[in-house]
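Q: Fold this one first, please.
A: Sequence and structure below.
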Amino acid sequence: MRDKKDNKSTRYLLIIYIFLFLFLALASYLCYFLVVKSDKFVNNAYNPRINAMEKNVIRGEIRASDGTVLAENATNSNNELYRVYPQGKLFSHVVGYTNKGMSGIELYNNSLLLTSHEFIGDRVKNDVAGKKNYGDNLITTLDPSLQKACYDAITTEKGAAIAIEPESGKILAEVSKPSFDPNTISENWDSISNSSDSILLNRATSGLYPPGSTFKIVTALSYLRDGGSMNDTFDCHGSYTEGNYTVHCAHNESHGHQTLKMAFANSCNVAFSKIGLSLSEGILKDTAEDLMFNKKMNLDQHVSKSLFRLGDEESKSTIMATSFGQGQTLVTPMEMCMISATIANEGTMMKPYLVDSIENSNGENVKTTSPTSLKSNVLTLEEVSELKEMMRSVVTNGTARSSFRNATFEAYGKTGTAEFNAAKDTHSWFTGFATDGNKTIAVCVILEDTTSYASNSAYKIMASYFN
């Protein structure tokens, strides 16, 4: 009899534990949804709650950091509201559009723009009179003059540029080409959406590219973490063969006997192939993931996840190619800019953001964004010092020296040439940062399918910022 009672008690306890587990799982998912996923659903253009808000609230304006209007409202002959973008193509990807769907700031801050913090008496008065309240205005971190400098610096048909303030994470400029006019997107929708040029893609945040030699920042850091030294030397005779795979330096240039710093400045593929083969298993992946590869970033806009795909038992050829930025690695310009910003900020990676503050229609502050770190102590101060020394050598004695020969500011960077097809056509990269002693800027530029130098474009952007 006792055994039967014990068995029954055990079954009851098992059922209780199962229900308790299910309850905790449901509660955990609810917390996760509220913290991580809720904004995505709240700001969805098809959310009926948002549609209801639009019936009662006039969408707020979007402005640049200096007050320049980037998005506002106008009325047509039938007294119907429609959205106007006074800057046209210049801010098209980052600000976005509200016709034929939504994108950019318009999408990711949809609920903020349709929330009204007008004086409560005015809101009650409008509700009684059947009038709409005015939504809040968003003051962004974007600098119009720097945005124009980035736009003009992209000299190819396709490309992207992004600029970040390292100590805060403020996105100062974000440009993607080819661009489009959000004022006429409805009329031109078919040609824009069906274009093979992916016109609607924000290449600065969502474009995934092989990083080319800009990835040597990650490889060099891995080598130093694996016990390597800045004084270690490598011999380069223009090419290097391991098994059936041969690596060539640009134009088959023989760099001779060089230190790690020299190899970095000269962007020597031979040296970095040897470095890659010398690394302990897994350290290159660990370092890349420390720098946010393979990690989803929850920012106030969509950013594609940069991908590092080197397994534990890869061929020597794959390891060699990956070490100098080819292989299967894919990155966004945002990712490479964040790496440069982290080095500039003494090893702390700040969370990039676009909305600096929210104001009501009377210009009264509702909320101000506080800078937050995405990841603290990503790099030690010693690693920061060594990376700065190598990146400085790129612009003083290395592959970017001609671009920065007239610089009146102190620049650091890494160039990159990335093959993207079997025909060995190339994209041109530059990622880096600069300071004039008072302020600092991190910049990343990619020019697609070109023989031009992205370092020239980066110099123009930095010079515009400091001037």
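Q: Good. Now the second chain.
A: Here it is, same layout.
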Amino acid sequence: MEVSSPIPRQHVGKTFVVAISLLGLTALVQVGAVAWAFVSKYHATSLEPPLPSNAAKGDVQEKLTLVDPFVAPEPATPAPAPVQQQPPQQLASLPKPTPVPAAAAAAKATMESRLGDLIDQARALRENGDTSTALTRLREAQAMSPDSALVISELATTFEKMGQTDKALEQWRRIYDMGESAGIYYQAADAKLKMSEAASRTTVKESDTSGIQPGSVLGLGSITAVEQAESGSLKKFVLKIPLKARPNSSIEVKDVVIQVFFYDLIDNTTIVQTNANVSSRWSTLPADWKDDDVEILEVEYAQPQPKAGKTAENRNYFGYVVRVYYKGELQDWRADQDKLRAKFPPPLTLSPDQTQ
């Protein structure tokens, strides 16, 4: 049984079919254009060189650009070649000043300090009679400063103390040759050399019939030592010193200076001034050479026993030196040992403070 639809069937016209065909064709063309643009973009991207592996992500910014598939792309502008920078012209460098190293200044200060210590040690040793060790210290100082006028003058003084006059004069002559640059030591050297020249011009003459040196008013007679035994002393004796005046001469007693020095030997090697008790007196008073031409001075030497519990040093009496001055001028002198005569020659004159 056939059933009829209530909606009547409409027939499609030719115009509608043509419109639908045009729309389909247009849509197909648009889809093809989009596909062509996508393929062109993908192909251009694949031809770009890869980024360096060490490039940081923040160093490159990607910019997307829509490409019209129907327009030819503009040729890429070549990147400019890198400009090579010329190295800056170097200016001629000036020579740098050479600074004084701090280490050199410190070494100089240390050397000066050591030099002063050696000189102080030598002076102390010389005053104590140890001239040989004093000479060793001064040799060390001279090795550090060969041209030091101070060190050379100390050497000269030490040689004088040792009685080595020629060596002492040699040192003074070295200072004199330095000239005024040696300062106060130049004047001292000049005085020493002049005194030596004056002494060398003085001819040693025989004593006249009075037993007194020519040009002198006082002279020494024969000196004798009288031993004295005493339980409290290691050694004790009295040195009798005759002092003769030239006949018919008037002696001013206040202007007479008599120097008597006793010396000991330590360990049989070192000569030093004695530490014994020494006292003096005139045999007769007054000693004025008015009633007699000869006056006798008695000088006592007493070396005491060492104190209990104290080790005795190896010290023994060695000898004496006697000098006579009148109005500051040397009249006569004696030494009972050749070593003392060579080691302790007397000055020809006394300074004003030594005559009082």
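Q: Anything worth noting on the second one?
A: The radius of gyration is 60 Å.
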